[in-house]
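Researcher: Here's the sequence for the chain we discussed earlier.
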Amino acid sequence: MKGKKLAHVLILVGIFFVSLFIFTLAKFPEAKLTAVIQGYLQQSLDPFGILETDQGREFSVFKGFQYKLIHPVFELSDQTRIELDEVTAAPSLLSLLMFKPGATVELKQGASSITATAAARGDQVSISASLNEVNFGKLGLLMYLAQIKGGGIISGDFKLDGTVSDLNSLSGKVDFKLKSVQIDEQSIMGMLQLKKPVKIAEGIIDIKIEQGKVVLNNVALGKPNSKDDLNVLVKGDITLKKNVNSSELNLKAYFGISDSLKQDFGFLETLLTSAKQTDGRYAYKISGPLSAPLPPSPLTESANK
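Model: Thanks. This is the structure I predict for it:
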């Protein structure tokens, strides 16, 4: 009986302090509060060489302590600019009650949106993200990640749960669909000169993370015998190691190029002859550590069966 009374008192005390905290925030001048939050945000971005500017900021206690940036621009150290209509962020109160701090962040640009949630306790993490018709060309992601000019639309979901210090505990999935992918005219690595855009109608990324492995069920761009200028298929797995850079690759990659691209890169036909398959595509095995893969080796027809 005394235990129940004590629990009841503790709950009431907790409600009081939460209410006091909310009341204090509600009375705190919004301009000062947003300035404090913005200071922490920029401080967090500084180590990555990212500068954030925007056209306005809002904070609302009554929308779950939501913080909003209006028309923010994130300028990266390589001059890449990511321009958005708005970014909103709010803590997950349910996660806090479970002593597992978390938050939800939403990015919007036109009809595109990215919603991500994350929670952590120690090195245990739970992360999920949902992408809706995201134009990764407009966001500058392709240029930032691969130094390639181009774009396309991506939609789908990502999820990861587990303990970071024990990669065998990780489980998750990547389930994305792509469409209207285009690689613009440009020089790639100073070696290949694209004289016209490379167009790919659609693609799929289907990856599972389980029992210490990243399994590529179906990672494909374009389709063979289609109007796509390029078609690529990668399958296999990556065995995760404690040092992620030492993770072992066990992949097979298949790709084909259109006749128009072959005309521009005639020398490739000679270089890739040993990997050519009966269906006209080229096939290679990719192995070795993640940070320093071995040179790709041509796959024979029998190795594909």
